[in-house]
Amino acid sequence: MTSQTFRTAITLGLVLVLGGSAFAHADSRSDVAARNRATFALAVTIWESGDVARLADVIGDHYVGHTAAGDRDLAGLRARIAAFRAGLLEPRLTIIDQLSDGDRLATRLRAEGRDAATGAPVIMVGLNISRFEQGRVVEEWPVWERVPAAR
Q: Taking the complete model, does pTM exceed 0.85, yes or no?
């Protein structure tokens, strides 16, 4: 074996070993991102159905939601879901797109339904940044706004 062939073999071996661990790390990040996306999708179905008994599947015990109205805990989240469902009939939430970075997931959403008081159509758009621990949301920053009715 020539010295050039030996160096090539060593370099290739290092690339495979180091690259393999880098790929494994990338795969685990990809797995975490996929798990977080699936958890968030389940949370969306809870908002649609109002089935707050399932929150333990997606929300961590020390959850904090940072909202414009102030911070809320798990009880506050339950109350907010109930108020949302009381004000918006037949809600349908759509995940438009998501960006993941480590333990954070940014999600752009659209909510549609009918105003409970008037029956008029309602459309809202939102952005939610969620932080996950062990596959559950432990912290989030939601921002929603109502889309003005068409003129």
A: no
**What is the span of the domain harbouring residue 104?**
3-146
Instruction: Tell me the pLDDT of the chain (151 aa) as tens digits.
Output: 555 444 444 443 433 344 444 444 556 888 999 999 999 999 999 999 999 999 999 999 999 999 999 999 999 999 999 999 999 999 999 999 999 999 999 999 999 999 999 999 999 999 999 999 999 999 999 999 999 876 5
Q: Please report, as a single letter, which amino acid is at residue 136.
A: R
The structural domain count of the chain equals: 1
Burial class (CB in 10 A: 0-12, 13-18, 19+), 134: exposed
Helix (H) or strand (E) holding 1: none
